[in-house]
Predict the 3D structure of the following.
Amino acid sequence: MYYSISGKLAYKDDGIAVIETGGVGYEILVPQSVSRKLPEPGGIATLYTRMIVRENEIYLVGFSALEDRRLFESLLTVSGIGPRGGLKILSELSAGEIRNAIIMGSETVLSKIKGIGQKTASRIILELKDKIRTLQAGEPGAGISTLDRKKTEALMALRVLGYTDYESRKALDAAFGNPDIDRLDVEDIIKNILSNM
């Protein structure tokens, strides 16, 4: 119903933003990572929103990027993940980290999130792996080269696995020095990198 809301930020706190537009103040639940990126009250903010309708409540959730909202909507399709659980996941990990954890099948990364056990992490991976690949293919930025996309995805995956930027970039430079690397998919590239680290 509400695709996005733009206006003056009247209030923000961890997990809540109030945007005033057209004489109406909209209270919007947001991941904590979004709260930290919002301007100070009085500044102009835009959030991509989704209305959640439950038996006893109706509320808005919002995200600073459209890709985050799409990922949130995908998480809601997983059995056992509700809106607040989806917000919790997006509070603790970036959209890129979540997508890479799903594509890599890394239950460890997802199960570190409070309230997400190993069974739920496994279910998220099982139910969303193919969907995440499809979403990535259709997102803005699809015009960049396949090799650059693979490099970016591999870098994000190594960060998720706990490697420093220095370690990750050094390993990526070595791996992408191989002319045959563009024939491999991202998972195989990362396995190759990890075996040499």
